[in-house]
Amino acid sequence: MIKFKGVNKWFGKLHVLRDINLHVTPGEVVVVCGPSGSGKSTLIRCINRLEKFQKGELFVDGTPLHDHSTNLTKLRAEIGFLFQQFHLYPHMTALQNVTLAPINVRKMKRSDAEELGREKLIRVGLADKADSYPTQLSGGQQQRVAIARGLAMAPKIMLFDEPTSALDPEMIGEVLDVMIKLASEGMTMCVVTHEMGFARQVAHRVIFMDEGSLVETGSPHDFFDNPQTDRAAQFISKILTH
Amino acid sequence: MLEGLNFRVLWEYMPFFMEGLRNTFLISIVSLFLALIVGIIACACRLSPWKLVRGLSIVYIESIRSTPLLVQIYFFYFGLPTLGLRVPELQTGIIALMLNSGAYIAEIVRAGITSVPNGQIEAGISSGLNYFQRMRFIILPQALGVTVPPLLGQAIVLVKDSALLSMISVMELTRCGQTLTSERFMPTEAFFTVAFFYLCIYFVLKSMADWSQKKLIFREAY
Predict the structure, then answer these.
(1) Could A91 and B142 be called an inter-chain contact, meaning their C-beta atoms sit closer than 8 Å?
(2) pTM, to two decimals
(3) What is the Cα–Cα distance from B161 to B104, expressed in whole angstroms?
(4) Complex ipTM, two decimals?
């Protein structure tokens, strides 16, 4: 589904991704973790080409992203992306946020799109918030609207860039619940997160990054209980002691 | 103080002034409307990823902003016929005002556009919206809301700038004042009346702007 082959990226002189090789299979849930500045966000932002990379090959759903002639707009419609800061459109209601892309990218009829949108809002538990504006919603609710917005495009892959990091602790659960449900339904997911409980419960694989490299990859069980590298062991001991 | 003034002549000239008022109003509305279109297009070019398009719009915006409007009006008035385009004074004036205000509006709208957080644009990109759809549905509705107050300011400037069209003998308000002055030699009465009418237009525009502000700005939390 997603295949990195020797991907390298530089921000000016800073080498942010070093020789990334990674293969995500359909239906797989991959959690990416690592210290800040390690390149986790950059890695998943490459998957829908929000970031360019300079060297290597990346195939998403068979489409080559390193090829400049690739129709990125079409590919991006197949990939849902969730941001740390939600980035809902503040001048639109929750329902309008969800239906914007189906109407304009998928060319659905407004009535069909609204029906679809309501269905997705029900799925994230916000049936009653369809006509609310983002500023009237809590952080957790906004992030769930953002998930519904992603789902409305019936994506093949969902990418999550620290989806719960900007939330108050009591709201993290409601977002993770939706994500767990998605994972159990077989969605292919790449999740950058520090929620180790989530990683243990639903990830098929945990990837640990440091200084732009994939340092370690393994099942959550192996990774948390028996890390192979010192760097990963150090990281785990730091995040689990709190 | 006022006994020296002869307002009776003004009644005589009132139909004439009404004609001027109507012209000034029409010139302003038409120019403003066209300038908005020009401004939005110029601004979109200014923010375009293509260097050539961006370069052209920078040349346009900067050359307008660096030269006096009166010079631009003369430039079009004398320049267009040289190019073989015979355009009546009124239309020449509207073109000049449109291009002039368009450049300022481009910069006002650009400030509004850059005020939309980049993350929302990325959200639009990642849901597969193309450049024009992102502009149309995400950026412009918010940018226009933010830019209403400075656009109101620009509209008022434009109404007052339209007075310069009197220099190419467009029969607008200021030209009416000049005519009354030269026919009856009553500059004080003439320009007092002219100023009063500009004031009226100002209030009409201001109430329109208040109305549009209610319509355009997205609703914040209550």
Answers:
(1) yes
(2) 0.77
(3) 13
(4) 0.91
